[in-house]
Design a protein that fits this description.
Layout (H helix, E strand, L loop, with lengths): L2 H7 L1 E16 L2 E16 L18 E13 L3 E12 L17 E12 L9
Antiparallel strand pairs: 1-2, 2-3, 3-4, 4-5
């Protein structure tokens, strides 16, 4: 029996949600954050299936979190300078039905930062 046949006879339940918020403490500073949760579970499996009721879904992290801070300013009306820092955290991910630790992704976080300097003559006025 192939994996495809088992997948057609499984029954699963998925619940979850996402929330995001943004704030502008000053006209130049924007702060935002988001949180997501996924609660997925196999509720019916057939004997010999490659999953159990405790198996984690493939490509479905339980938690995700993001945070962003953006700041921009104009210097002497000639240059626009802006900075952005963002962080994302994701709980572990499984990449196969059997939840093999050999191909699983552990929880991780990524931190990014960007600084942009743009002379006024090159700015696109339609997006201000």
């Amino acid at each position: 029996m192939g994996t495809e046949r088992f997948c057609r006879t499984l029954k699963a339940r998925v619940k979850g949600g996402e929330s995001a918020a943004a704030a502008w403490p000053t006209p130049r500073l924007k702060l935002s954050a988001g949180f997501g949760i996924t609660d997925s579970k196999y509720v019916r499996i057939v004997p010999g299936a490659p999953v159990t009721t405790d198996s984690q879904f493939v490509n479905a992290p339980k938690y995700t979190f993001t945070a962003v801070a953006e700041y921009s300013a104009t210097l002497r009306k000639a240059v626009q300078i802006s900075g952005r820092v963002d962080y994302i955290h994701e709980s572990g991910i499984q990449y196969d039905l059997g939840n093999s630790p050999l191909v699983a992704q552990a929880s991780y976080g990524l931190l990014n930062a960007r600084l942009t300097w743009q002379p006024h003559e090159f700015r696109n006025e339609s997006h201000e």
